[in-house]
Amino acid sequence: MRIAIVTGASSGIGQSAAIQIAKRGVGVILTYGRNQAGALDTVAHIEKEGGSAVALPLDLGRSETFPAFLGAVGAALRDTWQRDTFDILVNNAGIGEMAMFEDTTEELFDRLMRVLLKGPYFLTQSLLPLLADGGAIVNVTSNAALHSGMTAGYSAYGSMKGGLTVLTQYMAKEFSPRGIRVNSVAPGATRTRFADDAFEKYPEVVPELAARTALGRVGEPDDIGMMIATLVSEEGRWVTAQNIEVSGGLNL
């Protein structure tokens, strides 16, 4: 049985990715930050459909906690699946904050950098010894780092996600001798709890975003989760070092 680690899977895109990957017969270790209840909901959903999942806490912004997390992953692999390794890593966990360029503080910049770029970099480095040869990694970036999704107020956030896109290509290059594929997906506007439940707080933005999207609606978590699950499956076996925008044609 193949095993996946999906970070930030208590809601939104991560929750969908975990469920969609589990539907393909893969065991899932999913992580959560503050939302333990959401993570347990994800586990329950997977188990209800006959899958197996374990939820572990992870603070992606604190790299000093990664060795302890690595130990917890090793224990979960042995106890639940009698494995020493895993096969799939989805670096999804993140935070979102906007600030105009002139209002961006060093504190905000550093917080975004720790979670969105440093976190995936060193978490992947920590987990790499346990990642089986022939495995797959997907990094969740954003079309805020692409011309199609560029919006005033996201200079720091978009820069970190752009860095993650470049990192994806370097990972693909350096991990290829082990047959490990690395890709990224760049969601557009997606109806999640992201950025402090922005869609719930500002429902008026939904029709405007739908009007700017070629396929006529805003994204749903499963639109992205299904793409991630496909990339890490056998169907994606010949795809590596790619950044795939999954936005329904935002600003096309």
UniProtKB/TrEMBL annotation:
Swiss-Prot/TrEMBL keywords: Oxidoreductase
Question: Record's Gene3D superfamilies?
Answer: NAD(P)-binding Rossmann-like Domain
Molecular-function GO term, any one: oxidoreductase activity
Q: What Pfam families does the record tag this protein with? A: adh_short_C2
Q: Which family does it belong to?
A: Belongs to the short-chain dehydrogenases/reductases (SDR) family.
The name this protein carries in UniProt is NAD(P)-dependent dehydrogenase, short-chain alcohol dehydrogenase family
Species name for this entry?
Micromonospora avicenniae
